[in-house]
Amino acid sequence: MTAEQRPDRPTAAGLAGRVMITPLLPRPRLRRLVRLYAGLTLYGLSGALLVHSELGSMPWDVLHQGLARQTGLSIGTWSVLVGALLMLLWIPLRQKPGLGTLSNVVVVGMTVDLFLWLLPETDSLVARVGLLVLGVLVCAIATGCYIGARLGPGPRDGLMTGLAARGWSVRLARTAIEVAVVVAGVLLGGTVGVGTVVFAVAIGPLAHLFLPLLRMPDETPETPLPEAP
C-alpha cells in the first residue's frame, strides 16, 4: 500500500475532538487557563462563604453538606464524588466534557474545603448576612469566569443541558434537578434557609450581568454556553 493509499491515522487532537466538547486547550491558552481556574477557585470560595453564613447554602451544597453530616467526609470531598458520579450520567445523555468539566469536579471540591478551613467562625448576624451577600456575588463572578473560559460546562450544568437535549425545557430540567437535590440534602441534614432562597433568586440576574463581561473571545467553532447555575 502506498502512502497515498494508506488511510489517515487518527491524531491525538482528532481523538480528543470525538469525546470532548472543545479542543483540549484552544487559544488564547494562558488567558483561558487563568480565567478557568480563577473562576473555579472563586466558586469554591463562594460555597464556603454561604456555608459559613449558616443562613442557607446553594442547592448542590445543601446535598453535599447533608452527605457530609451523615458520613463524616468533608463537603468538598462530597462535591468531588457527586461531580464524578454526575459525569457517569453524561454517558447515556451523550454529553461531552471539556478540560473545564474535569477541572470543575476536582478544583471546586478542594477549594471549598480549603476556604471552609481558612474562614473564621462568627456569631454576629451582621457578619453572617455579609458572608451571604458576598458569597452570592462571588459566585456570579466565578460563573462568568469559568463558563466564559469556554472549556466545557460543569458536571451539574451538563446534566441539565443533557436533559434539555432530550426534550426537557432548560427551566424544567434545572428546576427539577435542584428541587430534588435540595429535598435530598434537607433529609440528610443539609442547611436550607433564607440564603438558599436569596441565591436562587439573585444568581441568575447577576450571572447574566457578569457572563458577557468575562466571556473569552471565541476562536473555535461556536459552542452553546450553559445556563448559569
TrEMBL record:
The record's annotation in InterPro entries points to: YczE/YyaS-like
Where are the membrane-spanning stretches? 33-51, 71-91, 98-119, 125-147
For this UniProt record, the keywords arranged alphabetically read as follows:
Membrane, Transmembrane, Transmembrane helix
Under which name does UniProt file this protein? Membrane protein YczE
Superkingdom: Bacteria
PANTHER family reported in the protein's UniProt record: INTEGRAL MEMBRANE PROTEIN, INTEGRAL MEMBRANE PROTEIN-RELATED
